[in-house]
Amino acid sequence: AQSVAQPEDQVNVAEGNPLTVKCTYSVSGNPYLFWYVQYPNRGLQFLLKYITGDNLVKGSYGFEAEFNKSQTSFHLKKPSALVSDSALYFCAVRGAQTGANNLFFGTGTRLTVIP
Amino acid sequence: ETGVTQTPRHLVMGMTNKKSLKCEQHLGHNAMYWYKQSAKKPLELMFVYSLEERVENNSVPSRFSPECPNSSHLFLHLHTLQPEDSALYLCASSQDHGGNTGELFFGEGSRLTVL
Predict the structure, then answer these.
(1) Cβ neighbours of residue B111 closer than 8 Å, sequence gap 6 or more
(2) Which of A100, B32, B83, B94 lies 20 to 30 Å from A45 when distance is taken between CA atoms?
(3) What is the C-alpha to C-alpha distance for residues A34 and A4, in angstroms, rounded to an integer?
(4) Which range is most confident: B14-28, B41-55, B96-110?
(5) Is residue A32 less than 8 Å (CB to CB) from chain B?
(6) How far apart (Å, rounded) are the C-alpha atoms in residues A59 and A39?
(7) Exposure of B103 by Cβ count < 10 A (0-12 exposed, 13-18 middle, 19+ buried)?
(8) In the structure, what pLDDT confidence band is assigned to residue B100 with cuts at 50, 70 and 90?
(9) What is the pLDDT of residues A58-111, one digit of tens each?
(10) Which residues pair with B89 in a beta bridge?
């Protein structure tokens, strides 16, 4: 069975500090992994994805994520947080052999960047 | 106009009302989705249409009825809803529901409140 765990409901970080939003997954076969961001009163926006290749993936707005197969993790990171990064972040996974209708989302992590 | 557009953005209805949510995508995609977003729960996939054919129905109550007249438009017809159906309903589209990497493009959502 496929699943995604985002262990932290809330992450607070000071502006300028590095941030990490955690995600672990469970899927059969090779995973396709995604991060989406949701700003207040908006829909989800795609940030980045891991399909294959380099374990470090770079995405929009200076975000990056590292795929770790042994730990089944795909943590989202940014070297220096901005107040405008405050939003709800969703990790998602599906198996490489399945379609987009088998995309499983986590419960979301609310990131607050403190000025 | 580009992207995925949802109307109305906010809807308040009684349990005996009949209303519809509308989604329109201007991205030339051939797959469209309805998701339900409730607080602190994973996004719930409700319906998937690919090339205007329904390919997924995740045990959604019959009080929700989807309609996809063409590849650019998707409706969610609502009738005799329950208060627990209050949520943010998100529409999404993708290039292909089966073979692509699964990147979804979301609308801004319709916030539904059932009294």
Answers:
(1) B9, B10, B11, B88
(2) B83
(3) 11
(4) B14-28
(5) yes
(6) 17
(7) middle
(8) low
(9) 999 999 999 999 999 999 999 999 999 999 999 999 876 666 667 889 999 999
(10) B36, B110
Of residues B41 and A50, which shows the higher confidence score?
A50
pLDDT digits (tens, 9 = 90+) for B47-97: 988 877 777 666 899 999 999 999 899 999 999 999 999 999 999 998 875
B33-36's contacts with Cβ under 8 Å and 24+ in sequence apart are: B33/A100, B33/A101, B33/B91, B33/B92, B33/B93, B33/B94, B33/B97, B33/B104, B34/B66, B34/B74, B34/B76, B34/B89, B34/B90, B34/B91, B35/B89, B35/B90, B35/B91, B35/B92, B35/B106, B36/B87, B36/B88, B36/B89, B36/B90
Q: Which of A90, A100, A106 sits opposite B31 (nearest CB)?
A: A100
Question: Which residues in chain A have Cβ-Cβ distances shorter than 8 Å to B94?
Answer: 100
Give the Cα-Cα-Cα angle B85, B31, A102 (nearest 5 degrees).
Answer: 65
Distance from CA of B27 to the nearest CA of A (A): 15
Q: Which residue among B40, B56, B101 sits closest to A107, beta carbon to beta carbon?
A: B40
The residue whose two tokens read 């009294």 is: B115
